[in-house]
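Hi U.,

Before I forget, here's the chain from the pilot set. I'm dumping it here mostly so it's searchable later in email.
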Amino acid sequence: MEEQPVNIPCPICHESGQVFMIANVDEIPYFGEHTQVTVMCHACGWRQTDFIPAEGKKAGAWSIVVNSPELLSARVIRSSSCTIKIHELDLEVAPGSNATGYVSNVEGVFKRFKDIVNMVLRDIESEVTSLQSAEPIDQTALTEALGSVSTLKGMLDRFQETHQEHGTPLTLELLDPHGHSMIMHDDATHRDLSEEELVALPVGPDPAVFSPDDEQ
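Structure:
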């Protein structure tokens, strides 16, 4: 695939003449023809990828209850406008200004959440060590930090249980106001988004290549 220059400044470093685009049209089973668009800046390394279906899609939510290891392989398409939730753990990732799309599976999505939980866990464990060595010890802060450590470790245990045949299930939900996201499995369910959800959900970044007249 050949890179094509895009006549806009980079939205991150604002360099001109360094932004390029790669577009690849492909067929995803059960999802249909789509275009994978990647925009990148050779000056600062900024990169944004998104998936755009050939046919217009309706805003909607996809969910799957992961109650067996087999479901971890269910294919997931997440666009840059998609909010991802795991309700049982009260976890949510909303699209920010630098959100990017990707194709993965349920296990890959869970790994992204686990990486964040592990990062936060390391920070709080470091805080616990500091609190325990302080004189005098702030017992209230230490108790709160230890409680957070316990909660985060419990989340990681719940993710691990999805690899067991009779583990406690987790529900993965994708909410996409543009309708570009999907969970491709017979056990996945689809529903329309409510008006309240459509108002509340962020829509992610406006792809720079499609908005050359906008100030970034």
